[in-house]
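Deviations from the work plan: none for this task. Representative record:
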Amino acid sequence: MAEEKKLFKVTIDNITVEVEPGTTILNAARMIGGDVTPPAMCYYSKLKGSGGKCRTCLVEVAAGSTADPRPMPKLVASCRTTVMDGMIVKNITSEKVPDARAGVVEFLLLNHPLDCPVCDQAGECHLQDLSFDHGKEGTRYEFKRRTFEKHNLGPYIQLHMTRCILCYRCVYTADQLTEKRAHGVLDRGDHAQIATFIEKNLDSDFIGNVIDVCPVGALTDKTFRFKNRVWFTKPVDAHRNCTKCCGEVQLWMRGDEVFRVTARKDEWGEVKESTKGGTGWICNDCRFDKKSVSDWTIEGPSNVSRHSVISQGHYVGLQKPTETMPAVMGGRQPRLLMDIHSVSEVNPESVELSKINRPAHSSDFNSDKS
Amino acid sequence: MQSLTSRAKQVDRSPMTVVERLYLWNIFKGMWITLKHFFRKKPTIHYPEEKRPFSPVFRGLHILNRDEEGRERCTACGLCAVACPAEAITMEAAERVSGEENKYREEKYAARYEINMLRCIFCGLCEEACPKDAIYLSETFAPANYQRKGFIYGKDDLLIPHPKENPEEYQKAVGSRAKAPANA
């Protein structure tokens, strides 16, 4: 009896779920899943205290609770508003929400450089998805976008402050996963920026996870920088015995080359729970240094949503056709076969891009020519 | 049976007369037709010396564009390769180092860029996909070759000549069409 009383009934877009008291509207919507879930740029369920900054998760509350069925006067941030019994929430059925969200997207994109062709996050960028799903076509902003002095965060993490939306996820990550946080948000307002106060390398063991939590391309993997586009690499689940972390990762491969190692992500783009329990954060060793297939036990291709650009060209369930030529010609190969590697300069066997521990430069490409 | 066209003619199978059997008359008749064509307007052109103008939507060999300062526009974003239905385009990107700012427009550039002309179907989707105005289909054909090796076009073959160092060649590559690909 007492247990039954505990659950709150909440209706989101005419779908009713029963959730525990203290659940936020966003998490209740995630229990339903699908289109009903509001997008979230700053909220991260695995990081305590995150949320409430980006305003993309705004929803309309049509009735506060059964006890007090008045609607909430303004749209509320669903990641920070807890449910009440009998609450009625409107997200996609609301008239106000799409408009407000388009406005939020426009604000988020005010200073965003839109350098997606250069950005390594393109293809798995939450801001791209958000602006595609909820944004308007153009911007009304006429002024110069803010720029920052380049700030070096060491050999592993590349900071592009112009792309940052100040979601604070990386700050919480450093607080909650590492012993000592070395970076934070400096200055205020338009000048607010992610930086270390005195130029300093980020080198705690788990600091690489800021790359995974960053919803945009502000923090990217320097060892993967410009090596390949996300959608040309193939995500593969793999694991290894790691003393520091769970060792369960996703490898982004091309052929036998491991281009990038990330933590596994769930359907909300957040780091998955590991099978050993706890969130599957991975350590810097696994992320940056283990770039050979021999380091890993490969479990198989990851599941990628077929609506994602990453699923292009991966040919899941590929069946290699049998070579007809030798069968027809009595076991003889045709004499005029062209091996593409004898002509093509792209992807030569002499250069393994994934083994270079920094972005490739012109010297890497010219040296093998001579 | 109703004939299919109004120009249908019954075959005349009556035996030939003496004049007809000489064939001379018919030879003169034929020669007359040949003679008439000497003074007609010629429908053919002398190809290598004279070339037909290209249609404004003609899609020929690709060129990789440069901006007005001669810097390469391509940033190796891979959108052409992902748009390509024939999977003819491959590339490798590199980071621009200091001192190369006059060569590449953005901090990332295509260190290698290859189009396999054997696979290319000249559909122009790469041109449409390009966010940087970097690739255009020009008004040239891919020249014939004796070997398939010759159809793997690298950056040396694709890059447009430098607009400042080699303005004549550049203009030639830009072509004569109204919507010139130069510096859009």
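Chain A has ten helices and 13 strands.
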